[in-house]
Amino acid sequence: MRKIEVGKVVVNISAGEVGQEVDKAEELVEKLTGKTAVRTESGPDMKTFGGRAGLSIGASTTLRGEEAREFLEKVLPAADISQSSFDGNGNLSFGIDEYIDVPGVEYDGDIGMMGFEVAVSLERPGYRVKRREHQASSVGKDHLVSDAEAKEFVDNSFEVSVQ
């Protein structure tokens, strides 16, 4: 029950504008992950920044299980992971400035140059108790994944040094 595992990986590209950039972002997410991308829409707070709510402004997808692990093995060598990449709850986030930095990914002239963000959720067996529909409860503090344990897991499992 103490073994740490990858719960999910979310790959996100924010185009920041409506139109062709969103199509390119969606195509790149599908190219990187092999999964269908979902368009992300702007929320009501977008009015503060001079936009409208409900516009497609990016693309994302979620990977779980073996797909998530394989994706991390492919992407982590291109990432610079620092202490600030961890959030204190066993989660890790990082960005890749240009997708061609990922080993094995070729430049696509139709997409152009684009970066993406990756959010990784690490958990232990038994975390289902907080997500279940019937009698959901919190995970005990001794069972939570700490930053030190998350860093050690990333070091040992993916052979990536945390700076």
Notes on the structure:
The mean pLDDT is 88. The chain has 3 helices and 5 strands, in the order βαββαββα. The longest helix has 14 residues, at 20-33. It is globular, with a radius of gyration of 17 Å. It has a 5-stranded antiparallel beta sheet with strand order 2-3-1-5-4. Helix content is 23%, strand content 22%. It has helices at 20-33, 65-75, 147-158, and strands at residues 5-14, 38-41, 56-63, 91-96, 116-123. The protein has one domain: 50s Ribosomal Protein L5, Chain: A. By secondary structure, the chain is an alpha+beta fold. The chain starts with a strand and ends in a 5-residue tail after the last helix.
From the structure above, extract its key features.
163 residues, five-stranded antiparallel sheet, 3 helices, single chain, alpha+beta, 50s Ribosomal Protein L5, Chain: A, 23% helix
* Count of structural domains: 1
Helix content: 10-25%
What are the secondary-structure elements, in order, as H or E? EHEEHEEH
Q: What structural category do the secondary elements indicate?
A: alpha+beta
**What is the global morphology?**
globular
Please tell me the overall pLDDT. Answer: 88
Radius of gyration: 17 Å
Q: In CATH terms, what is the fold-level topology?
A: 50s Ribosomal Protein L5, Chain: A
What is the C-level CATH assignment? Alpha Beta
Main sheet: strand order: 2-3-1-5-4
Spans of at least 5 consecutive residues whose pLDDT stays below 50 are none
Largest sheet: 5 strands, antiparallel
Tell me the name of the CATH homologous superfamily. Ribosomal protein L5
Number of helices: 3
Strand content: 15-25%
State the total count of DSSP E strands: 5
* CATH architecture field: 2-Layer Sandwich
> What is the straight-line distance between the termini?
29 Å
